[in-house]
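Quick start: what a row looks like.
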Amino acid sequence: MPTLSVTLVQKASSTDPAVNRAALVVVDEVADQQRPDLVVLPEAYARDFGPAGSDVAPYAEELDGPFVTRLSGLAARHGFTLVAGMFQRSEDPERPYNTLVVVGPEGLRATYRKIHLYDSFGYRESDRLSPGPLEPVVVDVAGVRVGLMTCYDLRFPEMARALVDRGAELLVVPSAWVAGERKVAHWRTLLAARAIENTVYVAAAGQPGPRYTGHSALVAPTGDVVAELGEDEGVLTAAVERTLLEEVRRANPSLANRRL
């Protein structure tokens, strides 16, 4: 039964893409110390959103641009898979995609363009970004099926269920969860809910405070928090255990018992 070692990197990105690429030295440090199978960086790691309403189009890249090239070099050097967020050029030059890239030793493996844009709590992400196609993305990482979600997607249970219906055993959620009243409580509650209702692991890597909430975490299919960071920058590594996933699904076969 495969066990997947997952490292979540809770690190702030800046508005300078070159600085963020240089800061990926943290991945080398993780590789030397933890030897993970999967490393997850936050949403918009290639370049932060900047002040609310900022134009991010000038910072959008192609999938063979400098950010993915840097990730590809790291993945090839260390033999693991990386997931990270970037702005990707779209058909609309003024509204790029908010994209997750999955990069392995062989190069770019998959992309997910954020479906649910953050038009909530006074923000209008759709003014500056294009929504992605309505197609859930699942990729195999070291024998574990990994479904991709981004930040605000967490508030839409139907998306998590669609990923699980496609075989996801682990939901990966890179995020820049904006800080505010009740926001940490929402974050932690929704991570646990998505895990419990789908009997699935959830690994969420967020940007840290004070602008964002931090609290990156791995949640088991039981709803138990395997490991969690606080508000500040940090790194955690924890294991996704296929044996536990199968035990939970035998004890609580809610997926099999669905009637709608």
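That is the whole record. The longest strand covers residues 3-10. The mean pLDDT is 96.
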